[in-house]
Amino acid sequence: MFDLSTVHEGLRLLHIGAGFLGLATFWIPAIAKKGSMLHMRCGSLFVLCSYIVGVSAFVSGVWGVADPVGFLRVQGVPDAAAVRNAGNVRFLFFILTYLSTAILSGVQMGVRVLRTKNHPEKLDAPRLRYVIHLGGLTALLLAVFGVAKTLTAVFGSRYVICIVLGLLGVVDWRENLNFLRNPRPSPRAWWYKHMESMLGCGIGFHTAFLVFGLSRLMPSAALPGAWALLPWILPTLIGIPVMQKWIRYYKRKFGELESNPKTTVHA
Fold first, then answer.
1. ∠ at Cα 102 (98, 104), nearest 5°?
2. Element (H, E) at 54
3. Closest to 19 in 3D by CA, of 37, 59, 46, 58
4. Is residue 197 within 8 Å of residue 190, measured between CB atoms?
5. Cβ atoms < 10 Å from Cβ of 127
C-alpha cells in the first residue's frame, strides 16, 4: 500500500539534510574570493541544496495548506488535536510554501543570470519565467491570506508576517520580470543580480531555520509574546541592508555607481 507517512518522513529527512548542508555552504561562497574554485564548487553545492530544499518544502507546504488535518494525522496526531491545530498548520505552511518558491525563484535567477552573462538576450527562458511567476503568485496568495484573516476578525500579530512577506514577494516578482525585459542596464548588471538572488536565497534559508528548525532543536529558545515575531523578520532586517551595502561596494569598485546610484534589492 502507498504509505503517506513514509512519504512525509522521506520529505522531512531530505529537507532537513539539505537545509543544514545549505546553511553551511552558503557562507563559503559568500565569503570566498568571487570566481575562485572554492567559490564555484561550494556555490554549486549550495545551488543543489537550494533546489532540494525548495522542492521538498513546496510539496510539504502545499500539502499542509490544502489538508492540514490530514497532514497532522499522517504524523500520528489524534483527530481532535489535528482539527484543533489545523489553523496553525495552515498558517505555518502557507509561509513555508512562499519561502520555498522564493528560494527556487532566487536560485534559478542566480544561476541563469550567471550562465548568460555574455549573452543577456538568452536570459529569458521558459523555466525561469515559470518559477518567477510561481514565486510571485505564491507571494500574492500569502498576502491575500493575511489580509483575509485580518478582515475576518481573527487578527493576530502573526498575520502581519503574511502580509509583509507577501508584499515583498510581489515587489520582487515585478523586479525580476523587469530584469528579464532589460537584463543589461549596466555592464556588470549580471554580477549584481547574481549576488542579489543568491543572498536572497540565503535570507530564505536562515528565516526557515530560525522559524522551523531552531524551535525544534532548542524548544527553550522560544521567544515570548511579540518577540516571537523576531525570527520571522530578523534575517530580512539584517540581510537586505548588508546586501545593498555589498552591491554598492562592487558598483563602486567597477565604476558603475555614478551611472546607476540607486540600488533596489529585495529578498
1. 115
2. helix 37-66
3. 46
4. no
5. 9
Contact 53, 103 (CB under 8 A): yes
- Residue predicted with more confidence, 34 or 100: 100
| 253 CB-contact burial (10 Å; exposed 0-12 / middle 13-18 / buried 19+) | exposed
How confident is the model over 106-133, as pLDDT tens digits? 999 999 999 999 999 999 999 999 999 9
Q: Examine the pLDDT at 97 and tell me if it is beyond 50.
A: yes
CB of 85 within 8 A of CB of 72? Answer: yes
Could you tell me the three cell numbers for 196? 542579489
Three-state SS for 35?
coil
Give the contacts of 69 (CB within 8 A, at least 6 positions apart). Answer: 79, 82, 83, 86
Cell of 74: 499522517
User: Quick one: cell of 118?
Assistant: 555574455
Q: Are 140 and 165 in contact (CB under 8 A)?
A: no
Identify the pLDDT of residue 201.
92
* 39 touches 96 (CB < 8 A): no
CB within 8 Å of 204: residues ≥ 6 apart = 99, 102, 103, 106, 267
Place of cell 499542509: 64
pTM: predicted TM-score of the whole model, two decimal places: 0.86
Average pLDDT value for the chain: 86
